[in-house]
Amino acid sequence: MKKKFTLEIKNPCEEKISNMKTNANGFFCDSCAKNVIDLSRKTNSEVAKFLSETKDQNNICARLKTSQLEEEFEINTLSKISNFKYAAIAATVLLTTNAVGQEKQPAKTEINCPKPNPQQNILGKVAYNSTVEKVISITVKGKLLDQKTNKPLNSKTYPNLILTINGSQSTIKINPKTGEFSIPILVSEGSKNLMISVNSDDYYLSKMIPFNMKSVKKNVLLQDIRIDISELSKMHIAGGLGVNYIDSKKSNS
């Protein structure tokens, strides 16, 4: 039997995740002396498994991605009797299959392969056309600024800011006082845009910005990045977790 459910945060918490201590399950909040289970890093099946193994579902403090509040989860709930029944059927099928397999002798098969026709084969060098765009390594230096104020983003509202450009592997934190950054990236010579991602503890933004290879001098691009803070999406929400089970009869009607 399958049970479907959705999640909600009944009592949103105003405590900053950055002020909490990390532990094996997520975080520990000193204010309420409770563990905050980080479900934002779990897959749907992992979330379902966690809830199926948790008896007191009404006393969970959790951290979720806001996108998880819009998703529908599913728990597979098989009774012990059903499990025993399916195990018995599987065992019977396995024994029957083995018995039949022992009675039958493997049939001999003969495979006829046609002889290759030399006239149908052509030998020689393979020619192909391929255009490979040159990729170069550059360093982007500048400041991450609020588009309206032309100042660095508020470090209290957006703590632990991290900037990524073109999927750069380096984890670069933004200087909270000046907004300065320096990031080594790879870019195609013919590229006209750069993909930037801005992350803080609970906010996220991904967008394309214009790029001109002519602006690169000695493999360095000097460019400030200005963003509209209204474009930053709320990524996480924490607080008392609510589990809303869906009536299968109502959902099917």
Characterization of the model:
15% of the residues lie in helices and 37% in strands. It is an alpha+beta fold. The strands form three sheets. A seven-stranded mixed β-sheet has the order 2-3-4-5-16-1-6. Helix 1 links the parallel strand 4 and strand 5. The protein starts with a strand and ends with a helix.
Tell me, rounded to a whole number, the average pLDDT.
Answer: 81
Number of strands: 16
CATH architectural label of the largest domain: Sandwich
Radius of gyration: 29 Å
CATH C-level category of the largest domain? Mainly Beta
Span of the ends, CA to CA: 18 Å
Tally of helical runs = 3
Briefly note the CATH topology name of the largest domain. Immunoglobulin-like
**H/E order of the elements?**
EEEEHEEHEEEEEEEEEEH
The profile of the biggest β sheet is: 7 strands, mixed
β-sheet strand percentage: 35-45%
CATH superfamily of the largest domain: Carboxypeptidase-like, regulatory domain
Write the layout of secondary structure elements.
Elements: E1 2-12, E2 21-23, E3 26-29, E4 34-38, H1 44-52, E5 61-65, E6 73-76, H2 80-103, E7 135-146, E8 162-165, E9 172-173, E10 180-188, E11 193-199, E12 203-210, E13 220-222, E14 225-227, E15 233-234, E16 236-246, H3 248-252
Parallel strand pairs: 4-5, 7-13, 7-14
Antiparallel strand pairs: 1-6, 1-16, 2-3, 3-4, 5-16, 7-10, 8-9, 8-11, 11-12, 12-15
List keywords for this structure.
253 residues; alpha+beta; Immunoglobulin-like; 2 domains; 7-stranded mixed sheet; 5-stranded antiparallel sheet; 3 helices
